[in-house]
Write a structure and sequence with these properties.
Layout lengths: L13 E4 L7 E4 L1 H4 L4 H20 L21 H10 L8
Antiparallel strand pairs: 1-2
Helix pairs in contact: 2-3
Length: 96
């Protein structure tokens, strides 16, 4: 799965469309489903849901998607990362 150009992230396991449909949409790369790791899938879903909630709760913020994240994290500064750390202890990592 590719992020938009200039996002700073070349590839991702998941992404989101915060304003798609009435509640937003979580996208998970098809490769993640073949890894046989429910925890990884749950973590990806929670991560992207966190980003959707942040963006929808703070639609006028210049910092939307990062409002509740970790600004000093070198890998992932968004709110989804904060959700992962809270629920799973880390950001989603593929098994193995």
């Amino acid at each position: 799965m590719r992020h938009p150009p200039n996002s700073g992230v070349p590839e991702a396991w998941g992404s989101s469309q915060p304003f798609s449909g009435p509640h937003g949409r979580v996208l998970i790369a098809s490769e993640a489903w073949s890894m046989q790791s429910p925890e990884f899938l749950f973590s990806l879903y929670a991560h992207e849901l966190g980003n959707i909630l942040d963006i929808r709760l703070n639609p006028d913020s210049a910092n939307r998607g990062y409002t509740y994240g970790f600004p000093n994290d070198p890998e992932d500064k968004d709110t989804g990362n904060a959700i992962d750390r809270c629920m799973f202890g880390s950001s989603p990592r593929p098994p193995g």
